[in-house]
Each structure stands twice: as C-alpha cells, then as structure tokens.
Amino acid sequence: MRPLIQFKLFFLAFLLFLAADLAESEPAPKNQEPVNIVFMIADDWSYPHAGVYGDEVVRTPTFDKLAREGVLFENAFCAAPSCSPSRAAILSGRYPHQLEDAGNLWSIISNRHPNWVSRLQQAGYHTGKSRKGWGPGDYERGGYEHNPAGKDYTDIDAFLKERSPGQPFCYWFGSNDPHRDYDTNSGIKTGMDPMAVEVPGFLPDLKCVRNDILDYYFEVERFDRECGNIINSLKEKGLLDNTMVVMTSDNGMPFPRAKANLYDYGTRMPLVIYWKGKVISGIKVASMVNLIDLAPTFLEAAGLEIPDEISGRSLLSEMAGKTSSKQRDTVFLERERHANVRKGNQSYPCRAVRTKDYLYIRNFEPDRWPAGDPETFQSVGQFGDIDNSISKFLIMRAGASGKGDYYNLAFGKRPGEELYILSEDPYNLRNMAAKPEYEAIVKKLRSSLVHWMRTTADRRLEDPQTTFWDEVEYTPDYQFENFDLQKEISEYRMLKKKGSNSYEAIPCME
Ligand SMILES: [Ca+2]
C-alpha cells in the first residue's frame, strides 16, 4: 500500500475514533477501505433507451437493478457527442475545448491533462481496462505508455488476478456496443416487437427504420448483459459491497441527427451510479449533470484531492440525497471535428446550453455542412459524420423532396442559432431562435454561453472562426473504401434475402 493511502486510512481512523469518542457508545464502522471503482461505458447509447427510463422494448435488467439499488440520473449529458472528445472529457473532468487536439475525433490525447485513472494508479490503485478505452486516436504520441483508461486486460477476472491482496482497484469496461455495424435482423430475431418501437421524430417511420432500431437495441441488451456478468463476478469475489459501479455511454445513437449532434439524442446519456451504503438507494437525481462530473466524483470518493483545472463538480452530495451548491441547472455542450468529412479538413464547430426547458445551439460556421459534405470526400461517402446505415440511406434516397423534412433535418445546413422548446419538442425539430416571442430567452441563453466560454478559456470566444481544430491531425490507421449509395442499399437487400423468415415479413424497402 502506498504511503498516501496509509496516511489517509490513518487519518480516517483517527476521525472515526474522535466520532466514536464523542458519541461515547457508537462503535466505529469496520469498512473503511478505499472504495473500488468499476466504470462501464457503452459506445453510442442514448437516453432514454433503458427499461427504467420507460422504454418498453429494450430490456436492460442490469441497468434497471443498479437504478433500484443506486442512483439514477435523469439529466446526464456527455460533453461532446463523439467518442474521443467525450472520453477525453470523462477522463480529465475538463471540457473538450480545454483539451487542445483531444477536442476532435481520431486525435492525440496529451498526458498533461488530469486523468482520474492515472491519479488513482499513483495513489496505489490497481488500474486497468478491457476493450474500448479512450479513443479512437493516438495516445502514445501524447506521452501515454498504455491507453489512458488503463492497461489492457481480457476481462475483469484477468484484471483482478493481477491485483495485490487488499489493493483497491479501478476497472474500466468499454464495450463496443451499440456502435455500428449491426447484424441485420439481430434485434427482431430475439423477439422484440418492431411495432412497439418509439421512432424518434427526426427519423421516418418505416419498418426498415424500426428494424434498424431493434438491431441497435440488440447491442444495448448485449452491453447490459456483459455489465451484469461483471457485477456477478464482483459479487462472487465478495468485492461488490465496497465498489462504486457506474454504467453510462459516451455519446448518442448512431442515427441521423443523433450521434455527432448537440440535439438530445446525441448528448443525453443514460447514467446510473451504485455504491452500497454510501448513496440513497433508488433515488432519482433530476439536476443537470455533465459526464465531466465523474472525474471529481471518483477522486473525492477515493479521498483524493481534486485538481484545480478540473471543470467538473463532484456528484457525491447529490447521491447522498443532499442539495448541493455544486448542483447544476445548466449543462454546456460542444463539438468540433467529428469525422474528417469536409473539404479543407474543416470542423463543424458548435457550442450549446441545455437547461431543463431549453436547448440553445450556436453554430459557428453555418455555411458548412453539419453532417459532412454532400459530395464524396476522401472516399468516406456523403454526409460522413453520420454512420452508414439503412436509416441514413433511405433518407438519402428519398432526397430533399421526399415525404417529411427528414433529409433537411439530417443533412441540411443550419442557421447560426437554434432554440428548441423541450416541453413541446422533445426531438428538437422546430427551431424557434428567430421567433420574436423567444427573443428574451435567446438573449439570456446566449449570454450564459458566452460566460461559460469565457470562464473556460474557449478560444472560439475571442476567435469564432479559429482554424485550430481544422488543423489538428486526423489519425485513423485505415483507409476508407469507395462508397456507392445504390450498392450499399442493394447489399442491405441481399442481407434481407439471406435473412430468416421473420425478416422476409418486413418489406422495409417498399
Ligand atoms: Ca461512441
């Protein structure tokens, strides 16, 4: 055990001794070992796609049980709706724009920024991760020897085998679910009912889209099962009682107008935190939470100092059922370059304020294409910020003159300011920013955004057209294949033909 932990334990024991002395007959609690942390993160999972949030199709018994026994967060948001910047923000407790290159997807993350995994390791914790940690991107050029989320292990059992007896631990499980690609029809084959799916208003209500959502649900359920296995493993080893268990996601579902967008389906996250005896079981926290708040939460739970440069706020008092001066009524969201899908390596820069009632977005480059250029660029395909899928292709094929406004909502250019009234417009479809009746609201939210940008030293405040993130290196280690819309659609058709009988019952291409 490291001296710091020894000292903290001694100090804690001393405090407990004092407390016990003051209370005269109160025995000191026995369990004062440093808390273990198990952080389980999905890849591209949106709120409200869990049973406990009211979704009637997807089955998430692990998440729901943690919510019953721990704390469920109803207004949690990722800092950016894109893997690398969101994960960098989670690890550092800082906003993506405070992390230089790491504000982009496929970037370089520097070890100069705070990182709770490294900090816990320095304090004597056994740390490690399985599968997706920080990424995609290059951490070695940022000075890291292994992934910033920890050294890699096959699974939790392999990880725990290398732990010294009694050593506190911090384990990161990063699933690749429900990131695309999906096995077409995997969802419907498990018996989920496509007609019971709630199709978000930004997607056309086609059977094929419903089926695509079921395939996404299939992977959400697989993530939930794997988390359940990890919890069982902790339980069997007698380790669950002193472990804080977290289940969340890095950004929203891989569908048009969701992932890589600052709308709710891109940024609003499932989040549950379990910590036996230390949080009030079964409470729901409605205040706004940014996932940058996890870093200070973990550090505080471990009894470590929270570095000044961390912008997040610890959630411990809220989890104990106390109102806190740290509680947020607003979260701030942002994005820079997701995939490299605009000529000149251009970003699509946005910043946003999300309150309970409103979502206000500032688009800094309204002349650029929000989902990527409509022409094929670097062989990625058209509108390359949106993962290729049957849902995307059907909207593309229907085109701008197709039924509904789906094409424009997904791919069209957007004005410099957007305002959504959440009580009337949960899917963020009707931009009210230019309506005179909302002038005062827009003014207030605009000023709140500027204040945040100033206090977090955002270079986009002084230099709104900065090319900083356009110039950041894009680091994929693979080549994109040539892309052809008709060929892609016909491949989905072929999959359909090869599929089971139940798939034949869904004539989604018609
Ligand atoms: Ca992701």
TrEMBL record:
<dbReference type="InterPro" id="IPR017850">
    <property type="entry name" value="Alkaline_phosphatase_core_sf"/>
</dbReference>
<dbReference type="GO" id="GO:0016740">
    <property type="term" value="F:transferase activity"/>
</dbReference>
<feature type="signal peptide">
    <location>
        <begin position="1"/>
        <end position="19"/>
    </location>
</feature>
<keyword id="KW-0732">Signal</keyword>
<feature type="domain" description="Sulfatase N-terminal">
    <location>
        <begin position="36"/>
        <end position="303"/>
    </location>
</feature>
<dbReference type="InterPro" id="IPR052701">
    <property type="entry name" value="GAG_Ulvan_Degrading_Sulfatases"/>
</dbReference>
<dbReference type="Pfam" id="PF00884">
    <property type="entry name" value="Sulfatase"/>
</dbReference>
<keyword id="KW-0808">Transferase</keyword>
<keyword id="KW-0378">Hydrolase</keyword>
<protein>
    <submittedName>
        <fullName>Sulfatase-like hydrolase/transferase</fullName>
    </submittedName>
</protein>
<dbReference type="GO" id="GO:0016787">
    <property type="term" value="F:hydrolase activity"/>
</dbReference>
<dbReference type="InterPro" id="IPR000917">
    <property type="entry name" value="Sulfatase_N"/>
</dbReference>
